[in-house]
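quick q for whoever's on today - can somebody do inverse folding on this one?? i tried earlier but teh output was garbage lol. tokens:
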């Protein structure tokens, strides 16, 4: 199994290297965040309810929110009222997720991308890498270049805890308004 895992990681890294583009993301402030992408792992339905409640809260604040969930199931008989991909949608050799829901999510631009999970996985890292977002927040993982803010969260924590931790950090890190550059200040 160890050999297979190393092969899988090799093929993943090779595919990612083809996709990587330089980071040129502009600064963002809390007030400027209008669209949010949320990538999360559904381990049970109660956990999914936490994310759905959070989505409603953000929408009440005037944000446009798009979800993508990973459901650890091979069965195509899964039903959910949000976009998702399954274990069977992940390529066994390079851990790259496929499917219409994944493609739709990755081709959407966001002001903020939040990966709400305690551990970083190769499929989540890949989706995060190819999703256009001004600010990317995720769990501490193998690829530090993907996220602007990485959180080290214990694996036993709930999605509610992770959501609250992300919110707390964003309040500290992001200014309420985007600061004007010195050249802009001189002309006003």
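ok took a stab at it. sequence:
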């Amino acid at each position: 199994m160890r050999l297979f895992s190393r092969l899988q990681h090799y093929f993943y890294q090779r595919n990612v290297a083809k996709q990587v583009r330089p980071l040129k993301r502009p600064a963002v402030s809390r007030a400027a965040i209008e669209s949010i992408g949320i990538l999360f792992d559904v381990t049970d339905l109660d956990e999914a309810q936490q994310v759905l409640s959070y989505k409603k809260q953000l929408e009440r604040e005037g944000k446009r929110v798009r979800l993508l969930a990973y459901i650890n199931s091979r069965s195509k008989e899964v039903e959910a009222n949000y976009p998702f991909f399954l274990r069977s949608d992940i390529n066994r050799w390079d851990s790259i997720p496929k499917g219409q829901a994944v493609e739709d999510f990755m081709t959407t631009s966001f002001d903020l991308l939040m990966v709400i999970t305690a551990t970083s996985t190769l499929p989540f890292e890949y989706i995060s890498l190819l999703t256009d977002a001004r600010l990317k927040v995720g769990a501490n993982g193998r690829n530090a270049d993907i996220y602007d803010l990485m959180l080290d969260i214990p694996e036993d924590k709930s999605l509610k805890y992770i959501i609250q931790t992300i919110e707390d950090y964003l309040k500290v890190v992001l200014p309420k308004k985007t600061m004007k550059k010195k050249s802009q200040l001189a002309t006003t």
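fwiw Confidence is low (pLDDT under 50) at residues 181-188. also The helical segments are 2-19, 45-60, 100-106, 122-130, 159-173, 182-187. so keep that in mind when u check it
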